[in-house]
Write a structure and sequence with these properties.
single chain; alpha/beta; Rossmann fold; two-stranded antiparallel sheet; 13 strands; globular
Length: 398
């Protein structure tokens, strides 16, 4: 942790205990030594994980990396202050939020955002779009969707995606006119869900030019504070329509970002940072997507940084193993003894029970770190005073 590879790592703090040593880190360094460049940051709210996320993002900008940050709470907008002060490179902010229309007063998305993530015309590949659209409907309908309904709907989707100017609104209309009542009932539920103003991002309008997301320059912060996310412990089938729509939007955003970043030259270092990562992996269709990013990151020179409150958020019963691609970890303080044990086991620490107890006593800004070589220790995250003042996520940080 204390070895500084010039140009490949930056100072993030120091070891807590004597002899105190500086700690250097870089999200993409693992790719240069043929290891997965993936990082998991966990901890209870207010203990320092978002602060570390912003610190790593700012340092990545200084190192001329291209990055995207999915920001459910709007915290990472603060990076713009560093850009405005000429400290870091370009920062772009894209807000996904609804506002009153100037003419009608009705809540609506920005015009250039409407239809941007419509799955029926997501790419130029009709078959890909058809499968993606079916996945979206499965995610929205949950376990209530029967095999018979899926077979009928999938055929309708396939035909629609091959037709000129497809969109979700036309698909729902097709379902509404179907001869079978159980198919029409699906249309009724989807119609209610898509009546939400935020759902306009999923319905392409031919009269409005579809926005193309440009993430090939600097850092793009996608502010998703306008979305409604469920509690991490809430089962998908018990989520509200707004919550399901929000989860689908995040899943499609990840897919779009992956496609763009995977197509970029390997010599460009890239990173994807996801705050409140549990919101992304809540959907079964998203887990495979994130698993692919974690597994292919090394060959694409693309780091993935996941921030979530608990390590157990990445544990599933469907065979998906997101932890397999994660070697670098930062565990901030948490009173969840069971999760602390799991965290230390994932770090492959032999005396994991003792270290798990230590995680419970960590102060604000302190964390148990495991680097790409498996070395571990407790460190104190530190940053420039100006940065600390701007971030202000944990003012008590030393």
């Amino acid at each position: 942790m204390s070895n500084n590879i010039y140009g490949l790592s930056m100072y993030i703090g120091s070891t807590k205990f004597s002899p105190k040593m500086p700690v250097f880190f870089d999200t993409n360094y693992a790719a240069y030594i043929n290891k997965p460049p993936n990082t998991l940051i966990t901890g209870a709210p207010g203990r320092g994980k978002t602060f570390l996320g912003m610190l790593l993002a700012a340092q990545n900008s200084i190192m001329n990396k291209v990055g995207v940050i999915l920001d459910p709470k709007g915290d990472f907008r603060k990076l713009m202050a560093l850009y405005n002060n000429d400290i870091i490179n370009k920062v772009n902010i894209w807000d996904i939020s609804v506002k009153p229309d100037e003419r009608t007063g009705k809540l609506s998305l920005d015009k250039d955002t409407i239809g941007m993530l419509d799955p029926t015309c997501f790419t130029s590949n009709h078959d890909y779009n058809a499968q993606l659209t079916l996945d979206v409907i499965k995610d929205l309908m949950g376990k209530s969707l029967t095999d018979a309904q899926i077979n009928i709907i999938s055929n309708l989707i396939r035909d629609l995606c091959k037709a000129p100017a497809p969109n979700m609104k036309r698909l729902i209309s097709k379902l509404e006119r179907h001869e079978r009542e159980d198919v029409r009932s699906v249309a009724t539920i989807l119609d209610l869900m898509f009546a939400s103003p935020i759902a306009q991002i999923l319905v392409y309008d031919r009269q409005i030019q579809k926005k193309v997301l440009n993430i090939k320059d600097g850092i793009t912060v996608i502010n998703m504070s306008g979305l409604t996310f469920p509690d991490p412990s809430k089962e998908l089938d018990k989520c509200s329509s707004e919550e399901k729509i929000s989860l689908v939007i995040v899943s499609l955003l990840n897919r779009l970002i992956r496609d763009i970043m995977f197509s970029m030259p390997v010599n460009i270092p890239k990173f994807l940072m996801i705050d409140e990562a549990w919101s992304v992996v809540s959907l079964p269709s998203s887990r495979g997507l994130i698993e692919e990013v974690l597994l292919k990151g090394r060959s694409k020179n693309m780091a993935c940084i996941l921030l979530t409150q608990a390590t157990s958020h990445l544990d599933f019963n469907d065979g998906t193993d997101l932890d397999a691609g994660i070697q670098m970890r930062f565990a901030f303080g948490s009173q969840d003894a069971k999760d602390n044990l799991l965290t230390c086991q994932k770090m492959r620490i032999s005396e994991y029970q003792q270290w798990a107890k230590a995680v419970e006593t960590l102060g604000v800004g302190e964390c148990l770190m495991c680097d790409v070589f498996g070395r571990h220790g407790i460190i104190q995250i530190k940053s420039d005073e100006e940065w600390k003042e701007i971030f202000k996520t944990t003012p008590e940080l030393n």
